[in-house]
Amino acid sequence: MPSPLRPRRYPSDTTIAEWALLEPLLPVPACQTKTGGHPEKWPRR
Predict the structure, then answer these.
(1) What angle do CA 21, 28, 9 make, to 5 degrees?
(2) CA atoms within 13 A on the CB side of 20
(3) In 3-state terms, what secondary structure has residue 15?
(4) d(CA 7, CA 4)
(5) CA 33/CA 17 separation, integer angstroms
(6) Cα separation, 32 vs 11, whole angstroms
């Protein structure tokens, strides 16, 4: 089901429900760790 915020542009676009399952599996961004790092250039989703 397409996101209510914008239509799906690519078949690989994730839905809100899919993203809710995937996001907790990703590592913490380096910029949010104690040692720091560059902010992410692109949104994770």
Answers:
(1) 50
(2) 4
(3) coil
(4) 7
(5) 27
(6) 31
pLDDT tens for the chain, residues 1 to 45:
555 666 768 888 888 999 999 999 999 998 889 988 888 898 888
CA distance 2 to 23: 18
Q: What DSSP designation does 5 have?
A: S
**How many whole angstroms from its chain centre is CA 37?**
18
Distance of alpha carbon 19 from its chain centroid, rounded?
A: 7
What's the rounded Cα separation, in Å, for the pair 6 and 12? 14
